[in-house]
Amino acid sequence: MSERIGVIGAGSWGTTLADLLARRGHDVTLWAYEPELAAEMRSTGINSRFLPDIPLSPRLICTHSLSETVENAALVLFVSPTQVMRGVLDQVTPYLPAGIPLVSASKGIEVKTLLTMSQLFREVLPPSRHQEIAVLSGPSFAREVALRMPTAVAVASGDDVARQVQAAFVTDYFRVYTNRDLVGVELGGAIKNVIAIAAGISDGLGFGHNTRAALITRGLAEMSRLGLAAGAQPSTFSGLAGMGDLVLTCTGDLSRNRTVGIRLGKGEPLEAILASMTMVAEGVKTTVSAWMLAQRHGVEMPIIEQVYRILYERKSARQAVLELMTRNPKAEGI
């Protein structure tokens, strides 16, 4: 069934999902923060800044107007960077139709409050609006989805809303599974970006597959440990939003967070790396949030701690690895 859907955020992932929904047959309006980008997509049918060389559906409408984006929408998808999401929500809330599902596809934790995106939505939106919140996450590089390569993700919410979002998105190349564990799906999507930075640092230092496998496995243990402390379901972290996304982001060449790590491992300063990037590597800021959450919950997260010290205390990457490897011996487990 065709629906009117608004998509907020015209980066690579937002553009890809808007294009997918339009090709699915929905009436989709995509909001771009940059007015010149919205104009370019209207005139050329391509997002040359974030998704070059991939023609977009002619059904897709692009705009710089938030009110136009969400007007009469049956569902609104938010794909803005995590750390600006609060400001975007503040601006768009007066125009949102009450009672419709709001779906976050942004993977991060707000630094100043340590809120996940669903928690942020609940804090910002007036309870009287009765908005249902869902989260879309899983192993999904935007470019591969835009090229219509088979991909599977998870949507977390209450059963009815999760099924509505599932039905809106599912195609013959984009498979969506439902999940009730909002907390676990969000934390998995956020924490995996920090572990991906660690995996990239390992690659940049010239280490091999053994090291990467250890980081992924113990990173999953840290992710699970924090998730359990926050009330998540253990099974979520063995699924698409946990292990699936973690493996993808720690190994794939399209991973922005892994790329940041590789360049750090090769000795580049963080400031220069970030200044050279067009797209946001969410893991850089999420490292701060994850480290603070670990302390709040009293959870041991040694990989997260070392990434934090490399990024924000200019610790030597090799020293960080040495300290991880020489920690007191312990039994395996989460």
Structure description:
It is a single chain. The chain has 334 residues and is of the alpha/beta class. It folds into 2 domains: 4-180, Rossmann fold (3-Layer(aba) Sandwich); 190-325, Orthogonal Bundle (N-(1-d-carboxylethyl)-l-norvaline Dehydrogenase, domain 2). It is 50% helix and 11% strand. It contains 15 helices and 8 strands. Strands 3-2-1-4-5-6-7-8 form an 8-stranded mixed beta sheet, sandwiched between helices. Helix 5 (117-124) links the parallel strand 5 (102-104) and strand 6 (133-137). Helix 4 runs parallel beside helix 5 (117-124). The N and C termini lie far apart (43 Å). The model has no long low-confidence stretch (mean pLDDT 96).
Observed structural traits:
eight-stranded mixed beta sheet, 2 domains, globular, Rossmann fold, N-(1-d-carboxylethyl)-l-norvaline Dehydrogenase, domain 2, single chain, 334 residues, alpha/beta
